[in-house]
Amino acid sequence: MFLRFISFIVFILSVVPGAREASCAEPRKPTEYEVKAAYIYNFAKFVEWPAGKSQVAGAPLNVCVVGRDSFGSALDAIEGKVVGGRKIQLRRNPPQQVPGGCAILFISGSESEQVGRIVANLDNSNVLTIGDTEGFAEKGVMINFFMEEKRVRFEINPRAAGRAGLRISSNLLKLARIVGSP
Amino acid sequence: MKRTLINMSAACCFCLLLTLFPGTVPAETEGVADEAMKDLTTLSPEELMRIEVATVYSASKFEQKVTEAPSSVTIVTADEIRKYGHRTLADILRSVRSFYLSYDRNYSYAGVRGFGRAGDYNSRILLLIDGHRVNDNIYDSAPLGTEFPLDVDLIERVEVIRGPGSSLYGNNAFFAVINVITRRGEELRGGEVSAAAGSFDTYKGRATYGERFTNGVEAFLSGSISDSNGDRLFFKEFDDPASNNGITEHTDYDRSYSTLAKLSLADFTLQGLYGTRTKGIPTASFGTDFNDPRNKTTDVWWFVDLKYERELANRWNVTGRLFYDVYDYRGKYIIDGVVNRDLGKGSWWGGELKGAAKLFDRHKLVVGAEYRDNLHQDQKNFDEDPFTLFVDDKRTSYLWALNVQDEVTIFSNLLLNAGVRYDRYSTFGSTTNPRLALIYTPIEMTTFKILYGSAFRAPNVYELYYDDGRDLRANPDLGPEKIKTYELIYEQYLGNNLRGTVTGFYYEIKDLISQVQETDADGNEFSIFRNIDEVKAKGVETELEGKWEGGLTGRASYSFQQARDSATDQTLANSPEHLVKVNVTVPLMRDKLFIGVEEQFASRRKTLAGNFAKSFFLTNLTLSSRNLLRNLELSASVYNLFDYAYGNLGGLEHLQDVIQQDGLTFRVKVGYRF
Questions:
Q1: pLDDT class for B6, splitting at 50, 70, 90?
Q2: How many Å apart are CA B544 and CA B255, to the nearest integer?
Q3: CB atoms near residue B619 (< 10 Å)
Q4: Are strands B247-248 and B254-265 parallel, antiparallel or unpaired?
Q5: pTM tops 0.80, yes or no
Q6: CB contact at 8 A, A180 and A159
Q7: Residue range B406-415, pLDDT digits in tens
Q8: Angle B260-B265-B270 (CA atoms, 0-180°, nearest 5)?
Q9: Structure confidence at residue B211 (pLDDT)
Q10: DSSP string, B152-175
């Protein structure tokens, strides 16, 4: 029994990684979440946070994810990158009460029941909220991804950003679909 | 015993195909391919907007909010399965509100909302794996225990949808639909091995590999093996020197293998599953010889499923599915020293087509069609020596169905969800099942739902045609069982951390298929299935779920349920009035070390003989850690911590009125990712 199991594992290990290498020669399309991660890095560059004690130069720029993390390893690509003198640091599922330590908060679709409350709790806390679920922008999430013909696009709720004291660059606004808000 | 050579080789071909395929897929030529090859973080937003991504997959895309679902839904995630040390799908369901499980030391049976017929092989629950129907085409059985052909480690989440689901899914969606969603290669991105050991010489191993390749192919492959010697048991019904004084050893063994393979490219997903389990029968059911380790059943499930999913430019989302399934049951029963074989072999293929669209902003329309062709529904029963054939029944049948569902936004806080499905069976004719739901959200944290629905369960070929010429007779005139349900749900968020639910339900069930004793003109007694029973069930359920910072989570539920036979006004057998469940996870070291505690209480249940199985109180404890050492996962569980002695009901095939369950058992588990 045990021997059969071992030989089974050996079979899997010997065959599958080979296939992985064989296919590496071809150009690959990035995944949806790799593109979203790159966008998030860009947002960090195009959004201006008000000066405050948590936003000082040199302090880490925390990118947080709440809910089910669909990024997998895609977000790792932006970890450690420096934006405006601040190093990006990832925090998955931070304590729910104080996502204030986050500069950017990605709210997963799994939290669609709570999104209104998460956003309401963040009022005036200078956190850039990002989602990728239909209807999130209308509920007060500042930037919301959507898919259009296999491309990742985004909508912006400028009023929500304004309330949190964030300034979104016009370079970003002109690319976005603008959404009104509660 | 005949080996399932054909099945095994088919599964192997599939593995081989999987490993060869990534290399043979032609490279896709894309205008932005060179852009994509660069580090994405060097690109500007303008450039990012031009990049075409591999298969569009938003976790949230087709997910419905739980509060907007037209039913009462519980979701159990992989994280909970791990933290509570669940070993089987039955373990998972045990923790779900209004479910209670019985184990007859061969199969596991789920009861829902006061209705749980021991011995019905869960034919009144629809089980899906990634949307693929699992219930077989002979007994309609839904495998929940170790017979479930998927390793629970491969589950991403389980969606438990209470209430009738026939308006969407047709047959078997009588009391609940359980959809098991498996993990994805993209999430895994590498390999995983796991080994577990537990009481009664139980060992389990698993190896899993998943990856998304550069050419867009996503692959997933996993194999599991499990072996248990089982307990030494005592049954007082056999306490006689002629039957080893009621003690049985080496008869409770349990062996299983399973393989899951998935391959996705662009809009297509090919999935194959193979699972087989052999279980010794320590209870001497069906009048078999006590303490004979040759008494056993083997259940083999396998299927291949090809799914196509595409979002069209005009906002229509189209899903198509083609599948081929095999179910193979072999029972070996020793009766007075004679080997009796009971066989069931089912195979079927079919297809589904579904279109979903948002129309005029206010409507979410879903239309679907399904066809299923039962190629084999064969039953056989014979004694080996001297050879005597009792049953040799071969059947084929088919069905088709159409369904439509519309979700209308009447006001921004009021949704109407209406659906209906028409099923046409070659066996009994047609049935139409509607569902209506009104979902009202007066303020963001409050939801009310009013639900009405009906469902059916078609008579299966075992009930229709199994005829051994002795004491079991066929009844080809059986019609479907029917249920009508009314339900009121109130969901309330309380502050930031709590969510409460209160549900009231009323069920009317008629034409239930039951086995009855009759006497023919010549005075011979026999058993036959008839559509005779009527049941009314009502109940109230409450649940409170909480989630706090640092990983403290929990849920607690209480269900009060009454299910009565309309003719006698007696409470049904195996119907506990009260169920209490508490699940709590406490972080001991942030993100690294957790303790999960489960408490389960069920009040007494009437047995088939009219006695009572006493109430029980179970405590399970799991200590689990992730990344305490890099990439290493460790857990230790104790089940039935206080060694509570309790029993479950078995079906009529058992001499035992109540079947003793496990006392204190343990399991340790190690996993490693690379």
A1: very low
A2: 38
A3: 17
A4: unpaired
A5: no
A6: yes
A7: 888 888 788 8
A8: 35
A9: 87
A10: GGGEEEEEEEES--HHHH-TTTTS
Instruction: Say which residues have a Cβ less than 8 Å from residue B237's Cβ, sequence separation at least 6.
Output: B246, B655, B656
Q: How many domains does chain A have?
A: 1
**Model confidence at B4: pLDDT above 50:** no
pLDDT band at B275 (very low <50, low <70, confident <90, very high): very high
When scoring A2, A10, A26 by the number of chain B Cβ atoms within 10 A, the one with the most, hence best to mutate, is A26
Confidence at B25, pLDDT banded by 50, 70, 90: very low
We report the CATH number of the domain holding residue A101 as: 3.40.50.2300
pLDDT, one tens digit per residue, over B487-500 is 999 988 887 678 89
| pLDDT tens-digit map of B111-154 | 999 999 888 899 999 999 999 999 999 999 999 999 999 999 99
DSSP states of B384-441 = TTTTEEEEEE---EEEEEEEEEEEEEEETTEEEEEEEEEEEETTTEEEEEEEEEEEE-
Chain A residues touching residue B221 (CB < 8 angstroms): 12, 16
> Is residue A138 helix, strand or coil?
helix
Q: Among A4, A13, A151, whose Cβ lies nearest the Cβ of B52?
A: A151
SS (H, E, C) A64-89: EEECCCCCCCHHHHHCCCEECCEEEE
Q: Is the pLDDT of residue B28 over 60?
A: no
CATH code for B75-609+617-673? 2.40.170.20
B411: CB partners within 8 A, 6+ apart: none
Report yes or no: B419 and B403 within 8 Å, Cβ to Cβ.
yes
B interface test, pick of A10, A13, A24, A32 with most B CB neighbours within 10 Å? A32
Candidates A1, A32, A121; nearest CB to B227:
A1
Please state whether the peptide bond connecting residue B587 to the residue before it is cis, i.e. omega within 30 degrees of 0: no
Chosen from B51, B77, B188, B447 to mutate, greatest number of chain A CBs within 10 A: B51
Interchain pair B53, A31: CB under 8 A:
yes
Residue identified by tokens 């006695």 is B611
- Asked if residue B672 has pLDDT above 60, the reply is yes
The 10s digit of each residue's pLDDT in B567-585 is 899 999 999 999 999 999 9
Task: Give the pair of three-digit tokens for residue B632.
Answer: 């290493």
Flag whether A24 is in a domain: no
A38 located within any domain: yes
Q: For residue B305, what pLDDT is reported?
A: 96
Integer Cα distance of B262 and B220 in angstroms? 5
Strands (E), B477-577: 481-494, 498-519, 525-547, 553-565
- Cα torsion B476, B484, B648, B646 to 10°: value is 180
User: B297: distance to nearest CA of chain A, Å?
Assistant: 19
Let me know if residue A23 belongs to a domain: no
pLDDT tens by residue, B504-544: 999 999 999 998 888 888 888 888 999 999 999 999 999 99
State the smallest CA–CA distance between residue A7 and chain B in angstroms: 11
Of B39, B189, B213, the CB nearest to A23: B213
DSSP-assigned states of every residue in B578-645: EEEEEEEEEEEETTTEEEEEEEEEE--EE-TTS-EEPPEEEEEEEEEEESSSTTEEEEEEEESTT---
Is A14 part of a structural domain of the chain?
Answer: no
Q: Which range marks the domain in which residue A112 is found? A: 30-178
> A2 vs chain B: nearest CA distance in angstroms?
9
Mean pLDDT score across all residues of chain B: 87
Q: CA of B659 to nearest chain A CA: how many angstroms apart?
A: 30
Q: A4 falls in which pLDDT band (50, 70, 90)? A: low
DSSP assignment of B429-486 equals EEEEEEEEEEEE-SSTTEEEEEEEEEEEEPPPHHHHH---SSSEE--TT---EEEEEE
Q: Which residues of B touch A24 (CB under 8 A)?
A: 213-214
